[in-house]
């Protein structure tokens, strides 16, 4: 008798998809990965003694062109650094020349580079940094995440937006961008077009923040530490948070990367919070297990950051190695910025439509202004030095 | 804008779309998890490599 009776749990296990099956193979990914690495080197990887870079070219152009108020146009006035150059080159290639289909699997590794950079960021902090920075950034994050989510759900109800769309927009703008929008979508039974609208609106707003917020920061003379916290609270998408920080200054980028950890750790709690806040009769049909939500949506790479940070606190390596780790961290972030540029399609952003963009930008601007106000109060009151 | 996405859609179309969103969300979460593992291997691996190089006196 060869027929076997498979019980329900066994059947479920048999159908369980392996985590690794979701990754594109190296054979499919290498063209995209090679494109990211090559473009990063061409744009100018920090610490790599390669003279023929876009950065060096712009520096040369600045020397040739007559100075404006005694300053070079690209490097001094427009602040073209490796972040802006990598992103701009990536954006131009994607939206003007176009990206071959064979590059797409490799480009999807952009999030891996970002997470790796964040893990290596652990080597830059000691226990005292974490106590000081951790307390302040966690407090700001908790206030901003839950405060912003409450405000957005309230505004959505006030303007009689679809509860599903309100929940997705609240998750996308108050939590962690695309990840949060995708995480909450099935819980609130969202339509695919609603998810697409929310993602388009937040990516578009994040891009404006990425280039606009450093200009605002320089105008208001915000210190790098405060700007890093502002990036992590104001910009909706993780990769854009870090790019905005590094676009302002190296120190601001490090703080933004660190503070962003606080936000991504809050994803499961925030998703549940918005779910219950935006709860309507329709949502009540879905049975949600809080533990499953926390288990499935917790970003486990944070443990990598904690491990590297703990090793640093134990003084396992001297300063030269820490400096080398800093350079490697910058490389991973640069790869992420170039990949981010090459993944951003302007045509996708248009999917949100005029009203979608308006709602998204209103939500995003509200959050940036609130974050700026909160940080200003903390700064001036001496709580945040 | 998707304020009334149900309008003009039949019940089965809506169910199909909901299933599609669920599938895409599951796939994305799975990919996020895989990305986390790869990032941990790369990040911790790079740090450990530098540590080994340093202890060998090569750094």
Percent range for helical residues of chain A?
over 70%
What oligomeric state do these chains adopt?
Answer: heterodimer
Uncertain regions spanning at least 5 consecutive residues of chain B: 1-6
How many domains in all of chain A? 1
The count of β-strands of chain A is 0
Count of separate DSSP helical elements of chain A: 20
Structural class of chain B: mainly alpha
Q: What is the overall shape of chain A?
A: globular
Largest sheet of chain B: none
The largest inter-chain interface, given as chain pair and residues per side, is: A-B, 58 and 38 residues
Shape of chain B: rod-shaped
N-to-C terminal Cα separation of chain B, in Å? 57 Å
Rg of chain B over CA atoms, rounded to whole Å, is 23 Å
Structure description:
The complex is a heterodimer of chains A (385) and B (59). With 385 residues, chain A is mainly α. Chain A has one domain (111-380). Chain A contains 20 helices and no strands. Chain A has helices spanning 8-15, 26-43, 54-64, 73-77, 82-97, 104-107, 110-121, 127-158, 163-174, 177-184, 192-219, 224-234, 238-248, 250-265, 267-277, 290-297, 302-313, 319-343, 346-349, 353-380. In chain A, helix 9 packs antiparallel against helix 10. Chain B has 59 residues and is mainly alpha-helical. Chain B has a domain at 23-59. Chain B contains one helix and no strands. The longest helix of chain B has 45 residues, at 11-55. The radius of gyration of chain B is 23 Å and the shape is rod-shaped. Chain B starts with 10 loop residues before the first helix and ends with a helix. Residues 1-6 of chain B have low confidence and may be disordered. The interface between A and B is large, with 58 and 38 residues.
């Amino acid at each position: 008798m060869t027929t076997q009776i498979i019980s329900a749990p066994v059947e479920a296990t048999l159908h369980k998809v392996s985590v690794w099956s979701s990754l594109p193979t190296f054979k499919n990914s290498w063209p995209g990965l090679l494109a990211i690495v090559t473009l990063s080197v061409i744009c100018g990887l920090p610490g790599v003694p390669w003279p023929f870079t876009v950065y060096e070219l712009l520096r040369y152009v600045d020397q040739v062109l007559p100075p404006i108020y005694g300053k070079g146009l690209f490097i001094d006035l427009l602040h073209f650094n490796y972040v802006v150059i990598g992103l701009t080159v990536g954006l131009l290639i994607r939206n003007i020349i176009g990206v071959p289909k064979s590059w797409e699997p490799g480009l999807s590794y952009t999030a891996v580079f970002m997470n790796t950079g964040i893990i290596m960021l652990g080597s830059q902090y000691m226990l005292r940094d974490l106590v000081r920075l951790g307390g302040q950034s966690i407090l700001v994050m908790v206030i901003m995440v839950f405060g912003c989510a409450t405000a957005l759900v309230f505004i959505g109800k006030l303007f009689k937006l679809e509860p599903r769309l309100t929940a997705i927009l609240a998750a996308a703008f108050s939590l962690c961008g695309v990840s949060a929008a995708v995480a909450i979508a099935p819980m609130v039974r969202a339509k695919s077009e609603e998810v697409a609208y929310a993602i388009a609106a937040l990516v578009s707003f994040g891009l404006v923040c990425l280039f606009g917020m450093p200009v605002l920061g320089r105008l208001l003379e915000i210190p790098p530490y405060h700007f890093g916290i502002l990036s992590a609270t104001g910009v909706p998408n993780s990769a854009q948070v870090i790019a905005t920080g590094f676009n302002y200054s190296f120190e601001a980028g490090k703080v933004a990367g660190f503070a962003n950890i606080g936000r991504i750790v809050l994803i499961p709690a925030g998703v549940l919070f918005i779910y219950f806040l935006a709860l309507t009769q329709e949502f009540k049909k879905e049975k949600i297990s809080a533990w499953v939500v926390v288990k499935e949506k917790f970003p486990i790479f944070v443990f990598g950051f904690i491990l590297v940070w703990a090793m640093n606190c134990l003084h396992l390596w001297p300063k030269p190695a820490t400096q080398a780790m800093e350079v490697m961290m910058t490389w991973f972030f640069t790869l992420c910025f170039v990949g981010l540029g090459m993944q951003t399609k302007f045509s996708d952003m248009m999917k949100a439509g005029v009203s979608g963009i308006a709602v998204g930008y209103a939500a995003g601007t509200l959050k940036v202004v609130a974050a700026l106000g909160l940080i200003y109060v903390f700064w001036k009151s001496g709580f945040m030095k | 804008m998707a304020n009334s996405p149900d309008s003009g859609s039949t019940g089965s179309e809506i169910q199909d779309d909901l299933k599609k969103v669920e599938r895409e969300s599951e796939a994305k979460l799975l990919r996020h998890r895989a990305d986390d593992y790869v990032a941990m291997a790369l990040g911790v691996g790079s740090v450990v490599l530098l540590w080994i190089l340093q202890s060998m006196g090569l750094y």
